[in-house]
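Notebook p. 47: complex prediction with zinc ion.
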Amino acid sequence: MSVREIVPFRRETPSKSEKGNDYGKHKPDLEEDFNYCCGYCGAFDGFGYTKTYFEIDHFVPKDFLIKSNSSIGFCKYSNLVYSCRFCNNNKNKHWPSESEDFFILDDKGYIDPCDPEYDNNLYRTEDGAIMWNTELGKWMATTAFKFDQRLEEIKLLWKYNKTRINIEKIIDELNDYLEGTDEYEEIKKELTPLFEKHYFLQRELATFYNG
Ligand SMILES: [Zn+2]
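Predicted complex, structure tokens below:
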């Protein structure tokens, strides 16, 4: 399975200008293009009450962009990633080279989360853990993003996001039927166990974050 429920895709032309330094203006576009999930670990950003807040990561880190000879500006949309705080912080500590042009050196480094290659190096197990197929994938998962240290949280977030998506699918389906018809009532019954699951997962996540 893919690490992300939906593989993110950046729009060709962002709504806001790619000039200047205020890259925060791209957040609404990024939220949509990344389906409100971290590009790297797939965590859903729907928890206002938790400590998992979301940021904008520069794929080629800001340190390189500060140099006047960099060809990448702070607001270049193709260099921006919607990212949870954990992935953003961990990534910036581990750039593999001294150059903005080398993302990968000797099986260490990063693949852009919008590149289909991302899912050739990392994958999701049935229970929601993130594992690797390659040495580069192992480096990203363990040395850089430290997914292994967040294993329980990552599994819970995955289950929560899947349940949420299933609920939304059924609600969409219900819109095709008239309320009160047999079909409508039949489909509606599928929601009850999902709501229950959603509620308990949310409680588990709250305990997880708030100790
Ligand atoms: Zn993340």
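Notes: The beta strands are 54-58, 80-84, 104-105, 108-109, 122-124, 130-132. The first strand starts at residue 54 and ends at 58.
Next step: compare against the earlier run before touching the bench.
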